[in-house]
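re the bet — no i am not wrong, look at it urself. input seq straight from the record:
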Amino acid sequence: MTTGDDRVDVAERAARAGGEVAHAAFRTGIDVETKDGKTDVVTQADREAQHRVIEVIRESHEEDAIVGEEDDELKAVPESGAAWVIDPIDGTNNFVRDTQIWATSVAAVRDGEAVAAANVLPALDDTYVAGKNGVTRNGESIAVSEKTDPETFAVAPTIWWGFDRRDEYANACRAVVERFGDMRRYGCAQAVLSMVASGQLEAAITNVHANPWDSVAGVFMVRQAGGVVTDVHGERWVPGCEGIVASNDEAHDVVLDAAQEIRPEA
């Protein structure tokens, strides 16, 4: 049986390998397809990067389940056993707009809980890796922000509200700007959660049910870096629950209040 440290290494190698495939297609005028909506886009680079990630994982973990955004991989994290949760290009809308904020994400889970993760942002030359001993960015240890005053916080509304939920998007933005120092919106959930883990942001909020490939790796990073992640009801976040409320744990109650205003009737 492999150790947690082995899975950290595999997660990083797989994310780097997939990221290299995606980066080779970045800013090359690649064709863009749509899936379930005008803003739900996919490219051949997504598929090829996912294939490469899986190839690397399969070199050492042939029997583990794979949860992935593209193709016919599982779409939910198994409650038991070993699995890998992968997103070949998180932030494809940024990718196809030649914007550098996108990530190749790989997380290892066991019995539904993450044990290792890597988020590689090739166009920014940043690699975030998390294991039992904490989180690093480009090999250097990182931790959540130490800011305690919400009026100094930078907070990101994250994940995507569809066209039929734009009132909630507006509520999220208003809830942030009324409470915190400033708002950021990056269009890549794994990048945002990595930024919370590294202290570039104090918090991130959404009430959307996040797909596991958009969330599992980053949530693990925030926790391993000293932060906290709950759902919109204040309960410990697990895959499939409602919303993500991630913070440096210095004023999580205020962050949670903001998240609960996204859909006030809830």
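see?? The two ends are 44 Å apart (CA to CA). told u. also The first helix runs from residue 4 to 25. so pay up
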